[in-house]
Amino acid sequence: MTQTTEAQNPESHKPGVLAGYRVLDCSIAMAGPFAAQRLGDLGADVIKVEPTTGEWQRHAAAGGAVGNEINVSFLSLNRNKRSVALDLKAAEGKAALRELVAGADVFLQNYRPGVAARLGVDYESLRAINPSIVYVSISGYGEDGPYRDRPGQDLLLQAMSGAMYSAGRDGDEPSPAGQYLADAITASTAFEGVLAALLHRERTGEGQLVTVNMLDALTTLQMQELSVFTVGRKAQQRSAEPHAHVYIRAPYGVFETSDGYVALAFADLHELGRLIDEPSFEGWSSEVEGWTRRDEIHAKTAAKLRQDTAAHWIDLLGAAGMWIGPVNDYAGLVDDPQIVHNGTFIEYEHPSEGLVKTPGFPYQFSATPPQVYRGAPLVGEHTREILVEAGFDDDAVDTLLASGAARATETAPVAASAR
């Protein structure tokens, strides 16, 4: 079933496994905010440090899903965070951030190379304030090198990574993944880096700089494929028929049925031929003809599977132990019985967006489970609260707000009705 949680009263929740750690999230777009959200899901106090105009993602609505006060892009990547809005180009705003750094455990940023140093929030500057800080810097291609200043955008990184030539039909244009793959993998990599650096600090007391770049993250994800190329010296050779991966024998891919599609992988050719009534597969070896006659196997399998329904083939071939399953769109995924059973999606009430249903958590802990402590914040929703915690009195906060070096949204809008 879908998990339903109340996100309006964070104090009522059981502390998560990262409770007690404070993270300053100075990142924008997807990779950095997604990594920080994962930390917040596990109970860390994640403070989103954003410009007084709001983080870039607030103004860039993916899919045109604009929301009420917060668009869906920002909403999906910034739950379990508090927002402090500071102008880091103003001396007063920069000084306020330094006060926050003094009490933080993690500082995460994905500024363009050189920007952190110009703002005075590079690792060396912040380490001078807090020697035990875990400082995470995310970039597109690396902190230096020939591509240092190129835009680190998901599609461009997918294209550079080589992955687009590992699937599809020979002669067709390369095809990107259906996910923001480079961003998502980079987020997971940064999340792992934070956890490892915090573990090191627990053991030694030593903070450190952690650098993550999208190109390396997406390249190392292809550990097996690239090793087949570099060690096994097998080139990426796409087939004339569509094939899901160049380094997998046939049949391997998506096949049309009379009423939809199925995915079929690693079927034994002799047994597959018997079940789909394709006599030419008799005597063929999956580990020989599965490679040498890849196009023929795909074409003949495709012709047979078009003759009946997806459910028929899933039942028939699945009962024989073959790896076959449905091809879902998002509607099919959300309603999938296993997804529902797992509680993969969560629902909670948001002050401005009403009832929110989004993917939940990729991990579970028996003693300290991840939770939604709060929904994505409005710009500067917690500015006063956070600065007071850092030692500013109300008059000092008022002065910052009056100067424009900080911004506060003092009260959240009335909750929208559930949708």
TrEMBL record:
Protein name as it appears in the record: CoA transferase
Taxonomy of the source species: Bacteria, Bacillati, Actinomycetota, Actinomycetes, Micrococcales
Keywords on record: Transferase
The organism's place on the tree of life at top rank: Bacteria
Gene Ontology MF term list: CoA-transferase activity
One Pfam family matching this protein: CoA_transf_3
Source organism: Agromyces luteolus
